[in-house]
Amino acid sequence: MTARLPPCLPEGSVALVTGASRGIGRATALALAEDGAHCILTARSQGGLEETDDLIARRTGRSATLLPMDLREGAAIDALGPSIAARFGRLDILVHCAATLGVLTPITHMRAEDWEAALAINATAAWRLIRTAAPLLDRAPAGRAVFLTDGHAVRPASFWGMMAASKAAMEAAVLSWADEIAPGSALRVNLYDPGPVATRLRVQAMPAADLAPLPRPDAVAPAIAALCRPGETRHGQRIVGQHIAG
Q1: DSSP per residue over the chain, as a string?
Q2: Which one of 89, 101, 129, 160 is most buried, counting C-beta atoms within 10 A?
Q3: Where are the domains of the chain?
Q4: What is the pLDDT of residue 172?
Q5: What is the pLDDT of residues 132-185, one digit of tens each?
Q6: pTM assigned to the model
C-alpha cells in the first residue's frame, strides 16, 4: 500500500469547493482533504455530495461539511460567507468548479432561459462567491482562490457561444478582483483551465467522442490543489492544463 504523504496545508485550514458531487470538483475536494483541509462541499445533488464525503472519510478519516444548493439561488450564495464565519471563523481556500455547458446552438437560435441559466451559473455565481468569500480569504494567512475555466472563453467557436460568453465574463470578474487585491496581501487568485477532461460535461458536449485518451478528474485535481498551497506565488494568472502528480 502506498504511504500517505503528510498534509501540505496549515492545521485548521478550511476549503470551500463548488460542484463537489462529481468530476473535477469531487476529485479536487478529495485532494484538498488529503492535503489537510476541512472541506465545505456544495452541489445540487445531496446524494453526490454524500458519495464525495464517503470517499474523503475513507481516505482521511475525517468528514466534510455538506451544503446542497443551487448556484442560481443568489441569496444562498450570499449567505455562505457569514455562515462559514459563524461556524468555522475562517476560510482559507475557495475552488469554484461548478459549471454548466448550456446548450450548443447557434447564437441566433439561443433561448433566453438557456442563456440566462448559463450566465447565472458560470458568471453571476462566481461574482457572488467572490463577494461573499473575499472578507474571509483576505484575513487568511495564505488565502487562495481558484476558478475553473474553459478554453472557449478565450477561443470562441461555432455553437459554443453560451459557454464562451459566460466563462469570458467569469474570467473578467476574477482577474479584475485579482488586480484589486492590495499588493501586500497574502491572497492569491488564479484561473485554471484543465483542457479536455473525461467528465460528464464532456460527454454532454460530445456524446460520440472517445474519452479514453483524456485525463481523468483525479489526474487534474493535484494541479488545482497545488494552486491552493501556501507556497504558491502566482496571482492573477490564467493557468492551462498543468497536470501533475499529487
Answers
A1: -PPPPPP-S-TT-EEEEESTTSHHHHHHHHHHHHTTPEEEEEES-HHHHHHHHHHHHHHHS-PPEEEE--TT-HHHHHTHHHHHHHHHS---EEEE----------GGG--HHHHHHHHIIIIIHHHHHHHHHHHHHHHSTT-EEEEE--GGGTS--TT-HHHHHHHHHHHHHHHHHHHHS-TT---EEEEEE--S-SSHHHHHH-TTS--TTSPPHHHHHHHHHHTTSTT----SEEEE------
A2: 129
A3: 14-99+125-151+167-196+215-240
A4: 98
A5: 999 999 999 999 999 999 988 999 999 989 999 999 999 999 999 999 999 899
A6: 0.91
